[in-house]
Amino acid sequence: MPKPSPSERLASIAAAAIEAFGRVGYRGTRTADVAARAGLSAGSLFTYVESKEALFHLVFLSALDLLPQAPELPLPTPGPGETVALFARALQDVPVSRIQAGLAAREPGDAGQELREIVEELYDMMERYWPLLAVVERCSAEMPDLEAVWFGAGRSGIYSDLAEYLQRRAESGQLRPMPDAMMAARLIGEMVAWFAWHRREDHDAACYDDKAARRTVIEFACAALVPPSESENKHC
Q1: 6-79: CATH homologous superfamily?
Q2: What's the CA gap between 195 and 96, in Å, rounded?
Q3: What are the helix (H) ranges across 38-154?
Q4: pTM of the model
Q5: Which CATH number is 85-231's, of 1.10.357.10, 1.10.150.20, 1.10.3720.10, 3.90.1150.10?
Q6: Could you give the angle at the alpha carbon of 168 between the alpha carbons of 150 and 163, nearest 5°?
Q7: Fewer CB atoms inside 10 A, N or C side of the chain?
């Protein structure tokens, strides 16, 4: 059996680390446990990552597809704030272009389709990045800077933009008005987060089909917010 390449080893280490940090947090994660799950001895792990801090940084590099094809080993310990800064930069590139396009368009041709594409994009983003977000949420209580980036500029920014979009479309009569646009945006976000992410960590995870979960969330949001005349069209 061929020996795994350094890149393959790093990928298996990153996968093991994501699971550990996302389950028990930063302090609760033991490098020996990560090494064992990756099929390495505790000492061998440090031929790939220089320290626990480097292991944590590896999680973000791997999840964000920023790991070099031929990295120099061991991966060095990041500088102070480097991992949080990496995550902050990634959040600036979060693929929520549909919300921005909706805010830029004054009169969409089909508000139902526009909303559908927004919820689809949110769902797909959450489904792709949920393992990393689980690490962020679990470790945020131990890392105030990380907490500020995610719960401050990151997540709240998406909710604020979505709320503004819902408010504008409600004022123009294209979407059903809600008592509070921010609460409506948060409701959509939490629904997306639970089915695209949190259900995977739930005891009943096997009860839900991935495709059915995605489709149900999208259809539910459209049915709730698109007025009857719009919801009868082919999109919603």
Answers
A1: Homeodomain-like (1.10.10.60)
A2: 18
A3: 42-45, 52-63, 82-92, 97-104, 111-140, 144-148
A4: 0.90
A5: 1.10.357.10
A6: 20
A7: N
Question: d(Cα 194, Cα 190) in Å, to the nearest integer?
Answer: 6
Residue written as token pair 């964000």: 64
- Does residue 173 or residue 6 have the better pLDDT? 173
Q: Position of tokens 């609460």? A: 183
Residue where the block lists tokens 């999840």 = 63
- Dist CA 79 CA 53 (whole Å): 9
Element holding 27 (H helix, E strand): helix 6-28
At 18-77, the pLDDT tens digits run 999 999 999 999 999 999 999 999 999 999 999 999 999 999 999 999 998 888 999 999
Mapping DSSP to helix (H, G, I), strand (E, B) and coil, where does residue 81 land?
coil
Which tokens hold the place of 62? Answer: 């791997």
Residue with tokens 């064992």: 36
Residue 231 has pLDDT above 50, yes or no: no
Give long-range contacts, CB 8 A cutoff, 24+ apart: 43-49: 45/13, 46/74, 47/73, 47/74, 48/6, 48/9, 48/10, 48/13, 48/73, 48/74, 48/75, 49/13, 49/74, 49/75
